[in-house]
Amino acid sequence: MNADAEALRTVKDADRKHVFHSWSAQELIDPLAVAGAEGSYFWDYEGNRYLDFSSALVYTNIGYQHPKVAAAIAEQAGKLCTVAPGFAVDVRSEAARLIAERTPGDLDKIFFTNAGAEAVENAVRMARLHTGRPKVMSAYRSYHGATTTAINLTGDARRFGNDTATAGVVHFWGPFPYRSPFYAGNETEECERALRHLEDTVVFEGPQSIAAIILETVGGAPGVLVPPAGYLAGVREICDRHGIVFILDEVMVGFGRTGTWFAAENWGVTPDLLCFAKGVTSGYVPLGGVAISGAIAETFARRPYPGGLTYSGHVLACAAAVATINVMEEEGVVEQSARTGAELLGPGLRALAERHPCVGEVRGLGTFWALELVRDAATREPLVPYNASGADNAPMAAFGAALKKGGLWPLLAGNRIHVAPPCNISAEDVAKGLEILDEALAVADAHM
Ligand code: PMP
């Protein structure tokens, strides 16, 4: 056995014996063993290279192994690996300043967490304490994380296995022109109906009992759901009229993903609390947080905030955040993400839809897109049923296998492929990815 084959066996054996994997039946999975990664690619022990159109879990916004961020983490580790969250320390102050300067409006204070779900948990806690109200409203088509409150706020099927009916969570339908539960007319009408439905839900639940409405600015896991023009402003207005805290969950879409620092900028809307994670460090060291408005920060000016985490604002993570944000600024990554969407990914994906009858819709912006694959373009019947597995999911499994065979690592969800490469992917790699997609879509066409 050569050295690579032996290394592969060691990794796989220990993984199978000792690693308990997320969201999986442990004996039914066979994870790919990754040997290394750089830029928009990672590779396995057998020399297969994959163009990563998933950015890991939509977080390597500047690609893998950016030398400046890796060096900043190493330098910080050599200087000071950790200090308790109660102290002021240079990299934490700097990370908070850089983030606060980029968030919209007066979201000027940053509460650091280790990841996205904890950001959601703390944003909900802040909203409840600020308003003195118990309920929180979220969209059915949403994902907010896997901790207790976050998974119950999550509207998609991942909630089912966890549903403890956490008191006070109320779900509603957001706009989704392609698969609207109201009426798939025009976008303006869709937006008005969705806002009326939300207003009615608020009124019938009792506004005096509702602490917050939480929304993904652009629904990520549920399918790159880009809101129609007036929707977020309409939700802002409903919140203001009823004294409800507006939380935007930008865990997936913050830090350049949609071609702006934060997705809310695309619609000129400012929430009261904004959750972030993932892209803030390109995932090199786990970090998340909540950006807090002046009014909510004031609630805790003379009254202690009853929440905290041992590793809140961990210095290695903050060093990674400072370096990541500086790299994004110096290399124009946010602008590049916008340009790539407008000039390469958008037109390229739409051209694929013209050629492949299985593509029902293309939607997205920046480096954040989804294709809906359908059995029938007229009825929009999905290529596989909602929450499909096993034989029901065979068409999507075949499509995924064709992509991997072509050298592209896809992010598949239900009947969709999400196209979310690093925000700084090169034009050459976009073209290469589109070519691989073109070939694999022929496999999906055959399943119509
Ligand atoms: N909110 C959104 C919008 C997300 O996409 C995710 C993760 N995909 C989370 C929250 C949870 O983040 P984490 O897994 O870091 O806890």
Automatic annotation (TrEMBL):
Alphabetized UniProt keyword annotations: Aminotransferase, Pyridoxal phosphate, Transferase
MF-aspect GO terms: transaminase activity
Leader sequence segment: none
Highest taxon, organism lineage: Bacteria
InterPro entries membership: Aminotrans_3 (IPR005814), Aminotrans_3_PPA_site (IPR049704), PyrdxlP-dep_Trfase (IPR015424), PyrdxlP-dep_Trfase_major (IPR015421), PyrdxlP-dep_Trfase_small (IPR015422)
Family: Belongs to the class-III pyridoxal-phosphate-dependent aminotransferase family.
Record's protein name: Aspartate aminotransferase family protein
Source species of the chain: Streptomyces polychromogenes
